[in-house]
Design brief:
The protein has helices spanning 80-83, 89-100, 110-124, 138-145, 155-161, 171-194, 196-205, 245-248, 258-268; strands spanning 5-7, 18-25, 37-45, 52-59, 104-107, 134-137, 209-212, 219-222. The protein has 269 residues and is of the alpha/beta class. The strands form 2 sheets. The protein has a 6-stranded mixed β-sheet, with helices on both faces. A two-stranded antiparallel ribbon has the order 7-8. Strand 3 (37-45) and strand 4 (52-59) form a beta hairpin. Its cofactor is Mg(2+).
Length: 269
């Protein structure tokens, strides 16, 4: 089974809920600085119907407030004043643990980033981190299945491709957008699998990125060779993933997106 979609050997289909989660953090400005969690947001989703069952979000005050910028370049960005009265991570750790532990984890680029930050945050307060029963990283899954037709595969690019609005870079908004992006991608893939000689051929003979032409407002296809790269901050370093295949007891299973593809039929009725 591809690493971007994993399931533990004890997982039974339909037995676990999916939790889409996202973190907002500080960005290290120099080597040696750490990422500090500023916001956690999650939605629990029924894997059979892809509907939201539960949601939770909270701002988080880092122990060192000076690590948070006084101002944000984004309209809805998190500032020092916004987190000044927020709870510390240890004060919301029980809730975060309960919403993550024993569920399938899903998110965009969570394997490289969010999973690492969660483990670091729990280690800092001397507590064991939650453990998933499976993991779906939509960055890898969609890059493999959907291709680069949406550009660099960042969430903002995917949302723009499907005209879902602008990414807000706030945790709860982003996870809900992540789910909608997956639904849209699954529907497109289902349509292409239904009419492969017509729809799939289109992507073989044309480009893989669709952009809106500034000249006439029509959609045109052109070649796109960019790929997602890590942040350019000198303090950023890729970390090893704390939730390895061995740690999850990973076994062989179904190909990724099968569940989403199956239920995308409901969207077409």
């Amino acid at each position: 089974m591809p690493m971007d979609m994993e399931a533990s050997s004890s997982f039974k289909e339909g037995a676990a809920e999916i939790v889409f989660f996202d973190l907002e953090t500080t960005v290290p400005k120099r080597v040696g600085q750490r990422f500090r969690v500023l916001e956690f947001g999650a939605i629990v989703v029924c894997p059979m119907k892809l509907v939201e069952l539960e949601s939770f979000t909270t701002l988080i005050r880092p122990t060192d407030l000076s690590a948070v910028a006084l101002r944000s370049s984004r309209p809805d960005g998190i500032t020092r004043a916004a987190v000044a009265t927020a709870p510390l991570f240890e004060e919301v750790a029980d809730k975060i643990f309960s919403i993550l532990n024993g569920r399938i984890w899903a998110g965009h680029n969570i394997r490289r980033f969010d999973c690492v930050r969660i483990k670091e945050a729990f280690a800092e307060i001397g507590r064991p981190a939650p453990i998933p029963v499976g993991m779906v990283d939509s960055l890898g899954v969609l890059t493999n299945k959907f291709g680069k037709r949406a550009g660099n595969m960042k969430m903002a690019s995917l949302a723009s491709y499907f005209q879902l609005g602008q990414q807000k870079h706030r945790s709860l908004d982003d996870v809900r957008m992540n789910l909608e992006v997956l639904k849209h991608c699954a529907t497109v893939l289902f349509l292409e699998s239904t009419l492969p000689s017509i729809l799939q051929e289109k992507w073989k003979t044309s480009s893989t990125k669709t952009t809106r032409s500034r000249a006439n407002g029509k959609l045109n296809c052109r070649e796109e060779s960019s790929r997602k790269s890590p942040p350019s901050s000198p303090g950023y370093q890729l970390r090893s993933v704390p939730y390895s295949r061995e740690g999850l007891g990973i076994g062989k299973g179904k190909q990724h997106l099968n569940v989403l593809l199956k239920h995308s039929r409901l969207l077409l009725r």
